[in-house]
Amino acid sequence: MQWLDRQQIELTRLAQPHLDIRLTQAKTSQRRANAAFIRWTNKRGLTQNLEYPGRPMSMPVLFLDDEEHEDQIRRCLTDASLPLELRIVGALIRLYGLPLIRIVHLTTDRFHQDERGAYFTFDKNPVLLPPTLARLIEQQITTGRSRAALGPLTTSEHP
Length: 159
Description:
Number of strands: 3
Strand content: 5-15%
Radius of gyration: 25 Å
Largest sheet: 3 strands, antiparallel
Shape: elongated
Low-confidence stretches: 146-159
Mean pLDDT: 84
Helix content: 40-55%
Distance between the termini: 49 Å
Order of helices and strands: HHHHHHEEEH
């Protein structure tokens, strides 16, 4: 709005050429807010179908080679110096490609064992786990959460 004021342009008269000029002048940090503002004004009929290009999506350029990938899996499964939660999450990401947003919603009722092995159900599909990962998950379920995200857990007796 300050830019529009300096240009002496009313919001309702903002046209694509004006916006294109703004695009060339805006700092990178302002672009996201500007894009949200233009979407908001378009939806409310304050501006007419202005287009504010989104950030170009870049394709991944850094990839682990097979050896690095295997080293990370091995470390998740065997390095006891890492927190148990981190080891499990890292292994689930590396072995099954699960995004973190799905992992945080997994619950203990999705883990089960039978005579053939240990399974974790992702969506509706039970997946056989490597024995080492199954033991880590079992240990986590048995011991529970050892620490809170914001610091050590306290009880009402010992604040």
